[in-house]
Amino acid sequence: xxxxLIATVFAGIACAGLALLLNIITGRRLxxxxxxxxxxxxxxxxxISNEYTWFSRTAERLPDGVEIAMxxxxxxxxxxxxxxxxxxxxxxxxxxxxxxxxxxxxxQRMADLYFFGRWSPVNQAxxxxxxxxxxxxxxxxxATFAADGAVVNAEWETxxxxxxILELVCGT
Length: 172
Fold this sequence. Notes:
The model has no long low-confidence stretch (mean pLDDT 93). The strands form two sheets. Strands 1, 2, 3, 4, 5, 6 and 9 form a seven-stranded antiparallel beta sheet that branches. A two-stranded antiparallel ribbon has the order 7-8. It is 33% helix and 32% strand. It is of the alpha+beta class. It starts with a helix and ends with a helix. α1 (2-25) packs antiparallel against α2. The protein folds into two domains: 2-61, no CATH class; 67-170, Lipocalin, CATH 2.40.128. The chain crosses the membrane at residues 6-25. Keywords: Membrane, Transmembrane, Transmembrane helix.
């Protein structure tokens, strides 16, 4: 976040410098407001660029075995250009490389999910998926394992058949 702020400031300085250079080349015929407007436009342009490239920059740094399961695009009237070109503000990645199964329950898989947000810290949650029944449960808040490996006290939730996270973890 701090690096993006510095980059935005330097983009404003660079655009103001270009406006100053253009003013010198034209014999100082440009109005005085050109430099601050150029700086502002440069900073706005850099901010927009950072918004649209955040997802690709973050996704390419994911470790091997962590795959993107779902993205959430956002549109905002405060950013009118997003009505035409929405940008990815959040996404969920599943660690399929370390997903675990139990011999006693072959239809169930346990995987770590990572929740990424543009201005949010990364959150991780272990989750178990019942691939045959199309349901999932977070392994938090009192969920435990029985002697045979079955999950006890978990709050199972039914997932749609076409849920991208279920499809990724279960490989269906």
